Structure formats: structure tokens, C-alpha cells
Amino acid sequence: MGLLSDPSRRKVLTGLLTRLNTPICGMPVEWLVKAMQSRGLEVFTQSFSRKLPFPDENKERYMVRGTNVYGILRAPRAPRTEALVITAPCSPGNTNNQAVALLLALAQYFRNQIYWAKDIIFLVNEHDLIGTQAWLEGYHHTNITGMEYSPLQGRAGSIQAALSLELSSDVITSLDLVLEGLNGQLPNLDLANLFYAFCQKLGVLCTIQGKLQRNDWDTAEGYTHAAQTMMLMVLKQACGRSWGDHGLFLRYHIEAASVRGINSFRHYKTDATTIGRLLEGMVRKLNNLLERLHQSYFFYLLPSLSRFVSIGYYMPAFGLLAVILLLRALDLWVHLGAPALAAVDGVTEAEQPSSPGVLTVLTPVVISHLTGVALYLLPVHLQEMAVEHFPVSETEAVVLTAIAIYTAGLALPHNTQRLLSGEGTEQGWKVLKLTALLYLAVLLGCTALINFSLGFILAVTLVPITASITPHMPKALYALVMVLLSPAFTILYCVFIYQELIEAPVSVSEGWMLFLSVISQGILDHALYGSLVYPLLALFIYPCWLMFWNILFWN
Amino acid sequence: MAAPLTLLLIVAVTIRAVLFRSSWAELISERVEVVSPLNAWKRVVEGLALLDLGVSPYSGDVFHETPFMIYLFHFVVDYAEIVFMVSPGLVFCLSRFLTSLYLFRKQKYALESDRYPADCLELLRSPKEMFYIPLKVAMFYLLNPFTILSCVAKSTCGLNNAIIALFILCTLKGSALLSGILLALATYQSIYPLTLFAPALLFFLQRLYIPVNLRRSSFWFFTLQYAFIYVGSLVVITGLSFFLLGSWDFIPSVYGFIFSVPDLTPNIGLFWYFFAEMFEHFRLFFICVFQINVFFYTIPLSIKLKEHPVFLIFMQIAIISIFKSYPTVGDVALYMAFLPAWSHLYRFLRNIFLVSCVLLACSALFPVLWHLWIYAGSANSNFYYAITLLFNFGQILLVSDYFYAYLRREHHLTHGLYLKKKDGTEATLVLK
Questions:
Q1: Which of B52, B140, B171, B347 is most solvent-facing, going by the fewest CB within 10 Å?
Q2: Please, what is the Cα angle at A398 between A395 and A403, to 5 degrees?
Q3: ∠ CA(A266), CA(A272), CA(A278), 5° rounding?
Q4: End-to-end alpha-carbon separation of chain A, Å?
Q5: What confidence tens digit (pLDDT) does each residue in A417-438 have?
Q6: Are A539 and A376 within 8 A, CB to CB?
């Protein structure tokens, strides 16, 4: 991230770019069009542009422009109502140079077959996810992310399934399957089973999360390995970003998966023909589908490619965590109602009126949510001002502003109690805690329904401390515990755990830089693709956490 | 009192104005929980367009509003937002009269009549407590998220609520003529307020000290008078509608639509899932069963609550908004606005925590499960209907809980607060 921290260097580069007025990485559009046309496809292009809210490390500029090229193979004897998509992102350099070649080879082979019942679209997109998003929005005539694109000239019917290829060398040792999509959405498990079945049939080594399967399920090492694979899937799903180009298809109810070829140090290598056969087999299976994939699970976790944990197994775990919050809320309710019952027994004491209590509860709630709104809006809007006053790049400015607002929120609610004239009664904090517990329970429930992993991770870190917090505890210790279990630190722990699990452990400073890049990626994902993790954390989870922080410092 | 009310009005208007101008307005006006085929603004605009073209607005089965509504909007369509913001104001006016006219007077009579046991004094409300009730009713209606959503979506449910509120206002003020006319107007808008005839009648009878005795001629005299006003106004209004548009098209389009439920778009009601699954052979039978469900509870409730007609009005409105064919959150907001008027029943409520949790959770889960069903494709209609069922269960529990609390308070007022069984131990009341 420090490459462009020097403002003078940045100005020079920006000047160079605006003069060139072309993206750095070029996609050979004309060559692709000619190549696809010579293979008998109907070829069309789509140009798109998107203004990024702030330049991230990969793109280093505000405006991203590109072109998608796609060719449609029309099914020879079928009505053109359904389609399949095979996509290969065209990235600069060596990261995906073989996939386009494989795509064109497949196109040529498919053209000669007569059994296609659905049209097949071969899509080569630029700028990875941005290009895919532009193409999907053009295809479905929506505009949910503010992208500017030229309308698609050719179309092929409703898309039933999609596959994304990533190959960086022409021989591979294993194929990795990537399932996690935007907002933690997963394709139907049948697609994963299909991939695994074909790998078994052709003798190709297949992995998930980059880890091979083991056969010793009973041993401790086998169990640990499976648990690590599952943990990786949970972490990837929780961060809400799309881990392959397929992730954006899922939002349009199109089952999609990414297949990534990995070339590591093994003796047995698979060549491109076998990969082609595998893909051909998968596409033929998808071609034979009479209806959309819906028979298998949509919500699952994979400890390996041949085992899965379905929602019926993992949701009760989350349910039990949510029940803790509800039971604590019920307990508080009973305690709040108890003084009223005591007064019934004849002795008319001065009852604590509950209606002024509404105002004492309302103030921390409003202030917490305003802080959350500030955390959501200000980092992107204030980046120019921050860049003027501090020697940081825009990305760093955004991330550091976010962290600054987050930390400032810790100081703020501490004092609102003193502003209100001495309403720090027993009743007051109990009412606030009741509201906050119910709010957190509903929030975690809704999150777990949409993105289970995110809901679970938040529940595991937030539920114990929030259920047990009261103003009567040792403030320093519990303040430290609360900060260590706050959402920002949860992200930090997840970064370290993720690095451990992919067997690339990092030092503290590298971890910190990764953490900053994760935050900037989260904000960017939300602006570009509509990922919900950042708004959820900023607008709902963080204010909820602030309310509990307020309770800790009630007196 | 004036200052908090003014502040409340300013806050309410600001929230609505801000939401009207933001990009959320379009999103909200498409939510199925907030608009139904009967009261969606999109359909009103469609009907206006058809009317401008000279075609009957009821052709094409899109528009299901009454002719009065279409002519009202014909003139004020440019000021639609203001119209929708004014209608909650009418409900707010009602809240003032609800307390000042009815509740204060009843309390005064109760204290003077000296007919309550001594230990029940704490059950009666002091004027100081009741002073804040108009503010609370206004707050419950104006700041209720359901009302705000309904207003921002420009659903005509807000106008229907205003008419019902005006009807209650006129009933409480004692004007039988206006009450009859407004009830006819409310019935003309959507048929279900027909059930409010009984509580209004009981209120007037109570007010004029006419005992509810089927053998007394004074009872029949007044009933026939009121019924004549009501039915007469209804006939006049329907006739006027005929002359407005020149045809009887509106009867099958509006009332036929409400009764026969042909549109099965999911909403927060109970009809859509059943009728989506049903065979045609049984459709008529189940339509009758479901519709009778709305009207049927009037009879036993009127018999039980014949001395408490205002509470009966509240129960009836609640039952209408739970069991009607196309409910929306605007209907729910109407009866929820009256809950502060019965805040003295709070101590007798048994399930209020459960009910609040269920209603809150369901309101949050409606959009989540809709997204999972329609957009993500991971869920199906069963999930959404489960939340609908849970929401209606919560509402029914709320209404029956208030009913229990009301009856229990009345029992205490006549029999003393601390009930003892025959052998002197403490007794508990059970609602059978």
C-alpha cells in the first residue's frame, strides 16, 4: 500500500494516465472477436466504465474502463430459451493466460457437436468482477450498482448455470473449486458434486480451499484437517466478497462455480486436454438439465469435497447462541416487572415510571446509530480532505478515517450519561440492555439467514460479553474485553486465523497491513457490487456494540 | 401539551418528507408488505391514466379503488404527498378527543358514582396519567414505522385509516348522523368496516341511556334510525359513484375483488398461500369460510362487550386488520395507535413480552425471507408464509391479551382487587 503514499509520485502517475486515456492492461478485443468469429460463434462486445469511490491498490485510479467480449454458440436444433455461460476473466500478466485459450478450444469443439439443447455463451471479461458485473447487469437490464455500460447487442435466453475458469499454466496438478459468492451466497451443492464426480472419473486431483482431501476420517489429524477446511470456508463466506468471477452470477439465481487450475510440485500433471474433457463433461451435464438446480442444499459447509454439513446441522448451534440473548432479555424483563408487582402488595411506594425511561433509552440509541452512519458515510466522503492534510494515499485515508471514527465512537457514549440530568438509575440501564439484547438477537438472526458464517462469527464473539455485561463490573477489565471482542478486532483475528489456515502465517505488521486492505476491500466491494458486510457492520452491528459499551459505563 | 405535540408533528413531517425525496421511496412503494393490489399508488396512477384516456379505469383488472378515490386523486394528484401526510393528522386529532371526551368523562362518572370497592382505587386512572394519553396515541401513530412506510409508499390505506378515525371521532362526539355517514363512507371504501356498525350503535345506545333490550321499543326505534342513516348514506354514495363514472363496473372490481380474492400476490395476510394451493372445486367454500371469519366475531364480542363499546371498536378494527383479504402494515398501525389509550391494562397483560418479540422479529424477517425466496432462490413460499403466520399469531395474541386484561380489570372493579376463594386463599382469574 505504500507505493503511492508519496503525493508527488501519485500526481505524476495520474497525469500520465489521464494523458494516455487508456487502461494499463489491454485486452486484445479485435483478436478475440476474430478468433471467436472464426470458430462460428456470434460475437458481440460490451464496453463499460465505473468510477471507483477511491482508488484501490489493484486499480490505482478512479475510473475503470474496459470491454467484455462474448460469443454465443447457438444450439442447433433447440428453441433459444435457455443458456449456459463459460467465462474466463482476462487479467493482465500471467494470472489467467491459459484460460482464454482453453475457452476458444472448447468453443471450437462444441461447435461441431449436435447435442446442445441450450445456447452456450463464452464470455471473456475484463477487470474481473467489474466486467462480470457490467455484463450481468446488461444481460438482465438492471442497474443496481451504478455501472455505466453499453447495452448488449446479442442475448441468449435465461441463464441456467455458469462456470468460470482460471488457468495460469497449461499443465496443472490439481483443480480447485471455488464456491463462495457475494454475500456468502453458495451455488447448489449439486454443482460441487458434479465437479467432484467428474474429477473422480477422469482421475484429476481436486481440492477445495486449496486443501486435498484425506481418507482417514477417524484419526485426530484427519478431523483437524477437515475442521480447518471448513473453517476456511466459513471465513471466506463471512467476508462477503466474491472469491471468483462466478460469485456475481449467484445473485441472479444462476448456479455458478469457479474452477481454478493449480500448478504445484507434484509428479503427476494433467494436461489441458483432460481439463477440456472435464469441462465438456460438466457442460454436457448442465445442458441436460430440465429445470434449474434446486434439489440439493443451498446452505452447506464443506469440510471436504465428499462431505458436507447442511443447514439442519449447523443452524441449531447458532440458534442456541441466539437463545442466550433471548433468555437474558426475558430475565431482565422479569426483573423490570418485579418492582411493579412489589407495589401491588399494598404498600404504595414511589414506582419508577417507565415512560421517562423511554427518553433515557432513546438518547444512547440515537447517538450510537448516528455514529454508525458517520462510520458508513464519512470515510469515503472525507477522503479528499484527509489527503490534503495528511501524507497518505486515498485508500489509506479512507481506511484510517474509518478506524478513527470507530475509535472515537468509544469515547463518545461514555459522556452522554452525564449530559442527561442524572438519569443513571438501575431501571435505565436495564431497559437499554433489554432493547439492545433484542436488537442484537434480531440482527444476528437476520444475518445468519442470509450469510450464516458472518452471523455465526459475530454471534460467537458478541453474545457472551453482551449477555453478561452490567455497569457493576470492574470497568477496566471488561472494557478491555469488550474492545478485544469488538467487530474490528474480530476482523483482525479472522485475518490472522485465515493466514494460519492457508499455511502462510504472517507477522504482526504484515497482519496489520492485511487488515487495512481487508477494510478497504470491504468498502470497495460494497460500493462496486453491493456487498452487505460493510453496511451491516457500520450501520447495525457497531451501533449495537456501542449501546453495550454505553451500558458498561452507565454510572 | 401543545409544545410536545407540535414537536411531534414537526418530527413526523420531517421524517416523511426526507423519505419522500430519497431513493428509498420507490423501494418502499414496491414492498408487498406495505402495498396491496387494493391500495397501491402505482395502480391509482394507472387508473387515472385510463380515465384520462376515456376508458373505464376498471377495465384490465388493475385498478381496484372506488370512484370517489379516483376523482379525489384526479384533482389532487400533484399534491399527493401532502394528502398522504395530512391523513395521519386526522388520526392525531382523534387521539385528543378520545381522551378528553370519552375517557375523562367515564372516569369522572366512575369516581362520582362511588360504586367501586375501596381497594380498587388504584385501578382507576388519575387525570394526571391520562393527560399524556393523547400525546402517546399521536406518537404511536405518527412515529410508528408501519405508518411511515405506508405513507411514503403513498398507499391509500392511509386515507382509509383517516376515514375510520373520523368515524370514531364523530361517534365519540355523539353525532349519530355524521357517524352514520362516515361509517358508510368507510364501508364504501373497503367492506370490512361494516362490522363497526354494532359497536357504534352500542355506543349511542349507552350514551342516550337506552338499555339494550330486544323487547324495548326505544331500542328498536334508535337502531332503525341509525341503520336508516347508515344504509341510506351507503345507497346515496353508491348511487353517486354510479353517476360519476356512468357504470356499475366498480362493484365487481372493488367489492367482487375484495370478496373473491383473485389476486394471490403474497402479503402479510393469510389468504394468499391457501388459495394458491387450493383446487378450484373447493375455492368457493373456503372463500366463504375465510370471509365469514372476519364478520363472525362481531356477534360474540358485542354480546360480551356491550357495556364497553369503545373497546369493542378497538377489537373490531384489530380483527379486521388481521383477517381481511389484503392486509398491509398500514392497517396494523391503525389499531396499534389505540394501545396507549389502554395503558392502564398493562399490569394485567400476560404475554406482552412474547408478543413484542414476535412482532419485532417478524417485521425484521419479512424482507429477509422475501429476498431469500425471490432473489436468492434459496428459500420458497413456505418460509415467507411461516413468517406471515407467526406475525398474525403475534397480532392475535396481542388482541386476545388486551381482551383478557380488559375483562379482568372489569371483574376486579366489581369484585375487588384481591380475590379470595371460599377458603380464604388467594385466587387467580382464568379466561374461559
A1: B52
A2: 125
A3: 100
A4: 43
A5: 555 555 557 778 888 899 999 9
A6: yes
Cβ of B360 within 8 Å of Cβ of A355? The answer is: no
CB of A369 less than 8 A from some CB of B: no
Closest B-chain CA to A298: B378
Query: Residue B111: what pLDDT?
Result: 60
The torsion defined by the Cα of B53, B56, B58 and B59, in degrees rounded to 10, comes to: -80
- The string of DSSP codes covering A366-425 is HHHHHHHHHHHHHHHHTHHHHHHHSS--HHHHHHHHHHHHHHHHHHSHHHHHHHSSS---
Pairing mode, if any, of strands A158-166 and A82-90? parallel
Average pLDDT over residues B181-207: 92
From chain B, the residues in CB contact with A299 under 8 A are: 378
CA–CA distance, A337 with B346 (Å, rounded to integer): 11
- Note whether B155 and B330 are within 8 A (CB): yes
Give A211's DSSP letter: B
Give backbone dihedrals phi and psi of A453, rounded to 5 degrees, phi first. Answer: -65, -40
Q: Can you tell me the mean pLDDT for A89-111?
A: 83
Is the pLDDT higher at B1 or at B328? B328
Calculate the alpha carbon distances from A28 to A85, A245, A331, B97 in Å: 21, 20, 66, 76
Q: What is the pLDDT of residue A356?
A: 44
A445/B361 touch (CB, cutoff 8 Å), yes or no: yes
Give the mean model confidence (pLDDT) for residues A97-115. 89
Which amino acid belongs to residue B417? L
Q: CB distance B122–A185 less than 8 Å?
A: no
Most confidently modeled range among A11-15, A99-103, A267-271, A461-465: A461-465
Taking Cα atoms as reference points, which of B408, B267, B291, B279 lies closest to residue B345?
Answer: B408
| Residue A535 and residue A515 in contact, taking contact as beta carbons nearer than 8 Å | no
Residues B402, B345 contacting (CB under 8 angstroms): yes
Cβ neighbours for A402, distance < 8 A, ≥ 6 positions apart: A375, A379, A519, A523
Q: Are A68 and A539 in contact (CB under 8 A)?
A: no
Among A170, A216, A254, A186, smallest CA distance to A453 is for A186
SS (H, E, C) A318-357: HHHHHHHHHHHHHHHHHHHHHHHHHHHCCCCCCCCCCHHH
**Which amino acid would we find at residue B91?**
V
- Nearest one of A326, A445, A312, A530 to B365, comparing CA atoms: A445
Cell digits of residue A289: 438439465
DSSP reduced 3-state for B114: coil
Model pLDDT, residue B108 = 62
* Residues within 8 A of B (CB atoms), A 408-437 only: none
Q: In whole angstroms, what is the distance from residue A210 CA to residue A177 CA?
A: 8
Phi and psi torsions of A237, nearest 5°: -70, -35
Categorize the per-residue pLDDT at A395 as very low, low, confident or very high, splitting at 50, 70 and 90.
confident
* Longest CA span, chain A: 95
Three-state DSSP at A54 gives coil
- pTM of the model as a whole: 0.89
When CB atoms are compared, the residue of A292, A442, A449 closest to B372 is A449
Q: What is the largest CA-CA distance in chain B?
A: 80
Per-residue pLDDT at A418: 58
Q: What is the mean pLDDT of chain B?
A: 86
- Quick check: helix, strand or coil at residue B264? coil
Q: Which three cell numbers stand for residue A360?
A: 433515557
B250-283 tens-digit pLDDT: 899 999 999 999 999 999 999 999 999 889 899 9
Question: Cα–Cα distance between B128 and A68 in angstroms, integer?
Answer: 72
Q: Where are the beta strands (DSSP E) in A98-146?
A: 119-126
Answer yes or no: is pLDDT of B75 > 70.
yes
Q: Which of A442, A536, A539 to mutate to test the interface with B (most CBs of B within 10 A)?
A: A442
- CA-to-CA distance for B328 and B268, rounded, in angstroms? 6
